[in-house]
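ok so i was messing around last nite and threw this chain in just to see what happens. nothing serious, just curious
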Amino acid sequence: MVGIFPIFIFGAQNVVSGIWDIAAFTMYVSIFCRLAQKSSHAAKLFNAVQRAQVSWKRIEPYMGTIEEPGAAAAQAATGLAVSHLTFGWPGAEPLFEDVSFTVAPGEIVGVTGAVACGKTTLGRAILGEIPAEGSVVPSGPGIFSALGHDSELLDASIRDNIALGEEADIGEALALACLEDDVEGFPDRADTLVGEAGERLSGGQRQRLGLARTLYHVRPAVVLDDPFSALDARTEQEAFAHLAAWTKEHGAAVVLISHRLSFFPELDQIVCLHDRKASVGTHTELMESCPAYRELFLLQGKEGSQCAE
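result:
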């Protein structure tokens, strides 16, 4: 886009000298800007390829533990143990220290806390994306599945975004993510193209499409970072009920990070981050023993009742 400056300088000279008229100059600038935008997309693609190559080098040694597609699903009942996890950015105090909890097969453990307490960072540490101290150990062989704040959607159909090339029915995944009715209303249904980064979908639809893909590919351990943040309350409750049933059916160990606590009383266990520490327990236990969690939960309940009024 730096090239726009000489274009304006020399273009203005051409207009003044009568070589161009205003319409030709405007058209030239418009075409240049569009080409520059497309070129920036190509640069982003190159960066994405480089990141993918680095990621592949990191995970390639672990791929040999899976003998065939579906082997991870067969080993789903593994659970997860997080022990003394500590992380801090260089030159700063630890964001959290000595975080320990376990997730049994078929359980959902929620992670919450105030803004900037390290919820997402804890999820990244569990996934091994950042070099944290401590250990994260599945109780058996398996692979993590993760869903972040922004789903990385392909410029392809809904079907391809979920199945990723596999030839199988995606109907169950759509139903689990409460996306079935939306897809039925699209012109080409599951073959509808979502556009670049899902630009043709609403925020809630993009989020549910990412959730559908995560639940379609069954893995022993799953980390979900605010998967319901763009949903209304009714859809959120329905999607959580589906997630809970899916978790028990497949024996998965799910870590659910969220700042919305309406469904937290139904979770098997809760990790509340506060003051660089973690309080772990059931909803009832933390309401009694953890003032930070109790304040968050009661505040959201009060805000919810005011919205209802």
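not much to say yet. The longest strand covers residues 80-87.
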